[in-house]
Amino acid sequence: MHLNDHRKNQKIARLKKRSDFLRAREGGRAHGKHCRVQFLPLTGHADMRAGLTVTKRVGNAVVRNRIKRRLRAVLDSGTPTNMPTSADFVVIAKDTAISAPFKELRADVYDTISKAAKRANKR
């Protein structure tokens, strides 16, 4: 996947309900350098939806909120064209996400999502 290979105008909806986050755990999982991803492909659902999780283990509220802003910026920067259009996924940040350069963070998040999607499709 190339960083320029993105759908610029597709907005990723957000997961908000706890039940949606728990359902995403049933799909494929993958670990990256700056995040972990849980991915669940859906049938009959129109949009791709993303959830963000940053645990207290990562840092205090200021640090956690900053990481969430960075992850939202990554997801809003465009989605890779090779990703399914109908899926739920949860990005769980690691503490290294705060200091990673943005391009590295974006590449890691999308590579990890792609790995989790492949594993979910094998199930």
Could you name the key traits of this structure?
36% helix; 3 helices; 123 residues; single chain; five-stranded mixed beta sheet; two-stranded antiparallel sheet; alpha/beta
Report on this structure.
The protein has about 120 residues and is an alpha/beta fold. The protein has helices at about 20-25, 60-75, 100-120, and strands at about 5, 15, 30, 35-40, 50-55, 80, 85-95. Strand 3 (about 30) and strand 4 (about 35-40) form a beta hairpin. A 5-stranded mixed β-sheet has the order 2-5-7-4-3, sandwiched between helices. It has a two-stranded antiparallel ribbon with strand order 1-6.
Q: Quick one: how many beta strands?
A: 7
Q: Report the end-to-end length measured between terminal Cα atoms.
A: 23 Å
Summed over residues and divided by their number, the pLDDT gives a mean of 85
As a whole number of angstroms, the C-alpha radius of gyration is 13 Å
**Spatial strand arrangement across the major sheet:** 2-5-7-4-3
- Beta-strand level of the residues, as a percent range? 15-25%
Q: Could you say which structural class the secondary elements and strand pairing correspond to?
A: alpha/beta
Range of helix content:
25-40%
Stretches where pLDDT falls below 50 for ≥5 residues?
1-5
The number of helical segments is 3
Tell me the overall shape. Answer: globular
List the helices and strands in order: EEHEEEHEEH
